[in-house]
Write a sequence for this structure.
């Protein structure tokens, strides 16, 4: 697994971009005609939604590679990507709910994309739970990879089914097009979240890799050396008393 | 700000603030969570070596 | 004998021998239908409108019991490893179990229909179509359900993990089955039944192939 400080740099850069893009969107972007100030939520909502889908797609790729190639690197990345995906999906749902309240008067408007994100939140959250309950690391890797593949394949099915289901009742929908004046803060924030994610997923993957190493680690060398008649551990240790 | 025609959402800054604050809390919170867990695992690994 | 047929025969035999469990699961489903009606209240029109949804919710909840039970015997005395040592394609094992579960869930669904008709005043003249939807919906539940049951049967937290993994996944099948059933009960003036049926068929086709493909990886050691 990688070394070096580049993930910290990426994450820092991402946060800086987010600060820039958000300030622009909050303070300097023009007010939208019909939605007023509430439209500014889009500057965080849309970038989060794009990146949530992106990181879950990355999780799908990791799952495929993990199943076909094996090895702990891709499983570590898989774990990181699933966790990041769950966090972002949850955030998208919170943002979407905060948006819906002043816009439609309800906390949830069953918009197909938002509803699909909610289903994804539960699906991938469940896979995280699965990983917690499987003790054998190999089974954990294979099963969660299989589960990710199955859940990801479901995404278009969920989206279309919710859209058909919704189209019979709902008349409004979240606006698809964003006019040009609003592009820049959106793009900056999108890259901000992306860079932050890249850094965090890498760090989280390293964490997962370290845990896997610790899981399969042999007993600490101090004890082993002592047992073989060598020097006692440098950091001190249990008195060996009458063992000679 | 002039009087707005019907169909325009008025105000709503509290929602905008809520959305931005929630986003900041969750993104920063997750970032710190990853940093700290990673640091802890690294120091644990370095101590065991 | 064809390994798939052998596996299917084994699972059907197992189900026949444990048929009292199926009766218990049916009672669970029927009481769920009763409890759902309490949530709505004695409003005949509302009950009729939501009958399709409640039928499928009851079947979904009951399926977690039935699916978890289906791997009970494989877990005893390492029977699963024994089966995998046989020189047969593990996929035959999967499809045998999945088809047996499909038949069991279809039976369960069909048995719950009269309960729905009585409690919700929600009958339909198009009985063959309704049975067809029940089979398609049950197929949507049993393909991923059998796969996840195989996984979770080997874990401590199996009773929570199976529904946790299954429920978000089967949302398209649930939507399709609920809409199709409601259209059959309430009438289909705009002819949407075909579209929802196609959704169910697509879901079933995708998951019956995908889950069979990955089953071997899930049960290998």
């Amino acid at each position: 697994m990688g070394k070096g400080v580049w993930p910290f740099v990426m994450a820092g850069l991402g946060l800086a971009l987010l600060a820039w893009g958000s300030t622009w969107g909050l303070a300097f972007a023009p007010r939208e005609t019909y939605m007023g100030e509430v439209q500014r939520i889009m500057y965080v909502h849309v970038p989060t939604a794009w990146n949530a889908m992106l990181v879950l797609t990355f999780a799908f790729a990791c799952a495929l590679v993990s199943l076909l190639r094996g090895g702990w690197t891709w499983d570590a990345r898989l774990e990181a990507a699933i966790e990041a995906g769950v966090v972002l999906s949850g955030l998208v749902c919170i943002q979407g709910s905060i948006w819906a309240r002043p816009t439609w008067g309800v906390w949830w408007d069953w918009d197909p994309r938002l509803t699909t994100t909610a289903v994804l939140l539960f699906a991938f959250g469940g896979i995280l739970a699965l990983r917690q309950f499987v003790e054998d690391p190999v089974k954990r890797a294979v099963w969660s990879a299989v589960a990710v593949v199955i859940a990801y394949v479901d995404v278009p099915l969920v989206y279309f089914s919710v859209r058909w289901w919704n189209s019979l009742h709902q008349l409004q929908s979240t606006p698809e097009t964003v006019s040009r004046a609003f592009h820049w803060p959106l793009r900056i924030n999108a890259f901000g979240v992306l860079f932050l994610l890249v850094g965090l997923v890498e760090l989280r993957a390293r964490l997962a890799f370290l845990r896997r190493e610790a899981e399969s680690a042999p007993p600490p060398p101090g004890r082993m050396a002592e047992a073989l008649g060598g020097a006692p551990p440098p950091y001190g240790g249990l008195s060996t008393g009458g063992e000679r | 700000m002039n009087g707005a025609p019907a169909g325009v959402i008025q105000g709503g800054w509290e929602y905008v603030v809520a959305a931005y604050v929630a986003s900041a809390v969750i993104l920063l919170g997750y970032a710190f969570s990853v940093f700290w867990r990673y640091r802890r695992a690294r120091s644990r690994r370095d101590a065991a070596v | 004998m064809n390994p798939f047929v052998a596996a299917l025969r084994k699972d059907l035999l197992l189900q026949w021998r444990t048929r009292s469990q199926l009766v218990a699961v049916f009672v669970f489903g029927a009481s769920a239908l009763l409890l759902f009606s309490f949530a709505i209240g004695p409003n005949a029109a509302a009950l009729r409108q939501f009958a399709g949804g409640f039928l499928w919710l009851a079947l979904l909840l009951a399926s977690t019991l039935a699916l978890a039970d289906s791997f009970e015997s494989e877990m005893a005395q390492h029977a699963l490893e024994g089966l995998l040592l046989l020189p047969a394609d593990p996929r035959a094992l999967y499809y045998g179990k999945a088809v047996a579960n499909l038949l069991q869930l279809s039976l369960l669904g069909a048995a719950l229909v009269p309960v729905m008709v009585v409690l919700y005043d929600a009958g339909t003249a198009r009985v063959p179509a309704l049975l067809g939807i029940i089979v398609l919906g049950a197929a949507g539940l049993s393909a991923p359900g059998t796969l996840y049951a195989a996984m979770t049967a080997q874990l401590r937290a199996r009773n929570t993990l199976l529904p946790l993994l299954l429920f978000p996944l089967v949302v398209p099948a649930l939507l399709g089955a609920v809409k199709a059933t409601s259209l059959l009960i309430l009438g289909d003036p705009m002819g949407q039944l075909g579209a929802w049926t196609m959704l169910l068929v697509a879901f079933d086709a995708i998951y019956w192939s995908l889950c069979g493909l990955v089953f071997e990886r899930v049960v290998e050691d």
About this structure: Helices of chain A lie at 6-28, 42-69, 72-104, 112-133, 137-167, 183-215, 221-227.
